[in-house]
Amino acid sequence: MSWFARRSETSQLSTQPFVLAIAQHRRAWLPVLLCVALIAALAYAAVFYAEARLLPAERIQVLEQENAALKASLDDARMGRELERATQAALENQVTELNREVLRLRDELKFFKKADGKP
């Protein structure tokens, strides 16, 4: 019966607390993981903030360039319109002068026709 009285070599396994090594490693990486997540969140926020600040400035610059181009085009169109008006006024004056000349020549023609008939 001495066989039952002797303690087994595996009895120490049941008397010691059972601790998983993986849990300890997980706990050691948790602060590092949280720091990495915090740094990533801050980097994302910084990029978002920078884009929010820079994109409107770029858009304003593009719109100002477009506005300058449109103003130049408008000035060209105005100059063309003024040239058109001046040309139209000159042509109207020329037509008026030519009409007066036609009337004068008709009067002369009538005079010569009357003078031709009388000896």
Number of helices: 3
Mean pLDDT: 84
Count of discrete domains? 1
Q: What is the 3D form?
A: rod-shaped
According to DSSP, the number of beta strands is 0
Write down the secondary-structure element order. Answer: HHH
Major sheet attributes: none
Q: What keyword list fits this structure?
A:
119 residues, 89% helix, mainly alpha, 0% strand, rod-shaped
How is this structure best described in words?
By secondary structure, this protein is an all-alpha fold. The protein has one domain (24-117). It is 89% helix and 0% strand. It has three helices and no strands. The longest helix is centred in the middle third of the chain and has 97 residues, at 21-117. The chain is rod-shaped, with a radius of gyration of 52 Å. The mean pLDDT is 84.
Q: Would you summarize the structure shown here?
A:
The mean pLDDT is 84.
Task: Please outline the helices and strands.
Layout: H1 2-5, H2 11-15, H3 21-117
